[in-house]
Specification:
Elements (H helix, E strand, L loop, with lengths): L1 E6 L5 E6 L20 E4 L2 E6 L2 E6 L3 E4 L2 E3 L1 E5 L4 E3 L6 E9 L5 E8 L10 E9 L12 E2 L8 E2 L4 E9 L9 E10 L9 E2 L9 E3 L5 E10 L3 E11 L12 E11 L19
Parallel strand pairs: 7-18, 9-19
Antiparallel strand pairs: 1-2, 3-6, 4-5, 8-10, 10-15, 11-14, 11-16, 12-13, 12-15, 16-19, 17-18, 20-21
């Protein structure tokens, strides 16, 4: 609390009370806070007595309109995707979230030119989809992204699932890694945090670039994984006389050997070894 003291012509002190108010914010991850365009109004009043008579006096009302904060986050949802050289339509899943405090539209871009990987994925045509059917992967019902036509328009704190689709070049080696980035940029504007776009926010308020700079990205990875499983089976016969003849009553001992080669992970593996006919 801060008191500012001046003196009027009659010599009596005049005091000005400065009151500091904060516009609420929900933190850094979902930092929409008070919605843009919200009016914050404040009126002060004072009451006192003069000669036993109560007097009330109100100040003028001061109104401040909350500006728009432009912020965005992009988060990778996919683990490293195992692929083979020459594969097509390999998907990476991302979540795009409007972390600002007003409705905002975003442009989307895929960048496959990462210099720190072993190969550059090749963008499929089209290479961006919205997970329209909420299946969590690329499917027939998903809507393709067309820049300038269906740029995602998200309310404050709203999210959209975006699917990046790439083809994998031929001639790669096991263990090679390729990276693909999704970049989202606010259409109102981007720049250094604190940059102001006067009158361009929701409802004509000023728009202020937040901590993300109005643009965000995340990187997904493909790994070439030509994992293969070789299986070999052998048999040893032990008959009732201690020999190795496959006569009635003999026992057959089978040995099954697995050999895994390449890189990556084989999933949903099932081993079956049915009992042969004419045995028990």
């Amino acid at each position: 609390m801060k008191h500012l003291t001046t003196t009027n012509l009659a010599g009596a002190p005049k005091r000005a009370l400065a009151l500091l108010l904060g516009i609420c914010s929900a933190g850094h991850v979902i930092a929409e806070g008070t919605l843009a365009g919200t009016d914050i109004s404040n009126t002060a009043d004072v009451s006192y007595e003069i000669g036993g008579t109560a007097v009330n006096q109100s100040s003028n009302t001061v109104t401040i309109t909350v500006a728009e904060v432009i912020d965005v986050a992009v988060v990778l949802q996919s683990p490293q995707v195992a692929v083979s050289a020459g594969d097509t339509n390999e998907a990476l899943i991302f979540t795009l979230t409007n972390t600002g405090n007003a409705e905002e539209a975003f442009s989307l871009l895929v960048d496959n030119a990462d210099t720190g990987d072993d190969f550059d994925p090749v963008a499929a045509i089209p290479n961006l989809f919205f997970d329209t059917d909420a299946s969590g992967d690329l499917s027939v019902g998903d809507e393709a992204y067309v820049p300038g036509s269906n740029d995602p328009l998200l309310a404050a704190a709203a999210s959209a699932v975006v699917i990046v689709v790439n083809d994998i070049p031929v001639g790669l080696s096991n263990g090679d890694v390729g990276r693909s980035a999704l970049i989202a940029t606010a259409l109102t504007g981007a720049g250094a945090p604190g940059t102001i776009f006067a009158g361009q926010g929701t409802g004509g308020v000023d728009a202020v670039v937040g901590s993300s700079g109005g643009s965000a990205s995340a990187i997904g990875e493909y790994i070439v994984s030509d994992v293969a499983i070789a299986i070999d089976k052998s048999a040893v016969v032990v008959d009732l006389l201690g020999g190795d003849q496959p006569v009635p009553g003999a026992t057959i001992n089978y040995t099954i050997t697995f050999e895994v080669s390449g890189t990556g992970t084989a999933t949903a593996l099932v081993f079956r070894d049915p009992i042969p006919a004419n045995t028990t």
